[in-house]
Amino acid sequence: MTQYTAVTDADLAEMLSAIGVGSVQELFDRQIPADVRLGRPLDLPAGLPEQEVYAHLRDLAARNTSAEDEITFLGAGMYDHYVPAVIDMLLGRSEFLTPYTPYQPEVSQGNLQAMFEYQTAISELTALPVSNASVYEGPSAVASAGYLARLANGKPKFVVSRGLHPHSRETLQTYAHGFGAEIVEVPLKDGVTDAAAWAEAIDENTGAVFFQQPNFLGAVEDAEALATAAKNSPAVVIGQYDPIPLGILKPPGECGVDVAVGEGQPLGNRLDFGGPSFGFFAATEAYLRRMPGRIAGETVDADGRRGFVLTLQTREQHIRREKATSNICTAQALNALAGVVYLSWLGKDGLVELGELLLQRTHHARERLVALDGVEALHTQPVVREFAVSLPGVDVTAVIRRCQAEGVNPGFALGREYDEFSDGLLVALTEQRSKADIDKLVDVLGAAVAAERGAVGATA
Q: Are 256 and 231 in contact (CB under 8 A)?
């Protein structure tokens, strides 16, 4: 049995002397730059007994409102889709719930096959030949695609549509600062990426271009035209896609997109306080060896039996910084497993039917809302599952609060992310929102806008 002894002050002084420092504080001061040190003790409250901590957390939890507590039309990248029971059942199995990284294929065939089947589903969904076994979430998938482009061509400029999700733009900006890329943002015009400004921004120094389909305002972009505009440059064409509308929209692989990424939450993952989720990542074969994360491959064993392994990358690419293509580790594929189960549950026909259902309900909701007094369409572009309206002359946040008091969350206040759309409201539909729900939204939002307009008039 190993025995441990306490380190005395003399022992500590001897160790510090051996490495040439006079104190533990000096050891940290030498290694951590002054501008990233806090410079004061952490502002933490005193500890509490366990039962008081439980009561405090219970009170905090009671302040939350879930999608099951109200009729919600909130989207903006995360959506209230129905999650079938089979997903929870399979994800709860211990062999999926608690695995380590499957570096040893002889004991990981189930997990490796699940990863392989997931990759196949994403390739079919995007019409791109290769997929990895997922990354952590949508915004980091976008940023990882930018790093791939930087490695592939070394060009220093990224051209980014303002229609790209704000979280993706922020994450890309953070990553780009680290590997020395400049972000050039292209504005929106009539709800979609300004085609002329987009083409003008792309040149021989452009390493990658980024757009979203549908974009953050819910508008369907001309993905093929945006991709074509970059084809005479070195740029990698990167599209962030909502996976659900891909049941009815032209897939990225048929639009000239080199890398398709996106947020996988709509595919069988719940709205659990913003996560966890997964990001999908698919590409043309030209970028196969630069893709982040893991790729599961199919092979045969010594007896000719079908088997699965991690392929094209070594373990060192995940644990050695100078060789890493990403920081993906351990059991990151659990949420992706929910994605492939969900897609299998729907099937190809089911995905198309879901997309068509969303298209019809979204069109109905949009027509009903813009017919209200005080509600206008923010743009008139085609939409699939989400659309933007404007509420001129009123406080959108106050309107949302009035609606929530009536048990309806009408959507996302665009002014939180877009100064130019301070009166904008982004409304999202899923198959969980019935015609009756839409009718209630119309009634509640109409009354809330009228009340706010009256309040504004009374104080004028």
A: yes
Comparing 5-9, 17-21, 50-54, 390-394, the range with the smallest average pLDDT is 5-9
Beta strands in 214-358 (DSSP E): 236-241, 259-263, 279-283, 296-300, 306-310
Q: Which two tokens stand for residue 72?
A: 């919600």
Please say whether the beta carbons of 119 and 131 come within 8 A: yes
Stated pTM of the model: 0.89
Domains in the chain (CATH in brackets) are: 71-78+348-459 (3.90.1150.10), 85-341 (3.40.640.10)
User: Residue 313: pLDDT above 90?
Assistant: no
Angle at 387 between CA 383 and CA 345, to 5 degrees: 65
Rounded to whole angstroms, the Cα distance separating 456 from 460 reads: 6
Strand order of the β-sheet with 236-241 is 130-131, 279-283, 259-263, 236-241, 206-213, 157-161, 182-186
More confident: 110 or 2: 110
- Per the CB < 8 A criterion, the answer to whether 127 and 145 are in contact is no
Residue 457 pLDDT class (50, 70, 90 cuts): low
Element (H, E) at 56: helix 50-62
To the nearest 10°, report the CA torsion of 216, 220, 225, 228.
50
The SS3 assignment for 31 reads: helix
